[in-house]
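Hi R.,

Here's the chain you asked about this morning:
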Amino acid sequence: MKNRDLILLLVDKSINAFGQVLGLSEASKLKIALTIIQSTVQDTFNINSNYLSREVLSDILAKKPLDIEQASLLTNLLWTEAEILIKLNRPQYGLTQYENALQLLNWKTRQSVEMDHLERKNKIRELEAIIAKLKLPEEKNISK
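And the predicted structure, written out as tokens:
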């Protein structure tokens, strides 16, 4: 099971348990899951993912480089956050987090330990396809 899937599974099971007890709607469960992911990013990396842009992430990577495991965890958390944001009908914010996750994966490609890692390359391709799909409606609106 992929790390990202494991994160989603753990968050989903926790939220569903609370949701059943409290009678929460699907949107409420997603908002709680989003809060958990964002709190984890804040507590683990001291990063407010609400304000994380490509430029901010570049500065973070330049000033306090992450080790490979930390970068993998942050990538998975941001990717999971993006998926939740898309489900909450916040595609622009989801797109930003997908781009941040892709930036981290590309950063990892430049680390000697990670060169030619097939799983990472597959993740990069998958993220690029998701980002292209999300940008497509945006480009149609610009051309009108």
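The two ends are 43 Å apart (CA to CA).

Let me know if you need anything else.
M.
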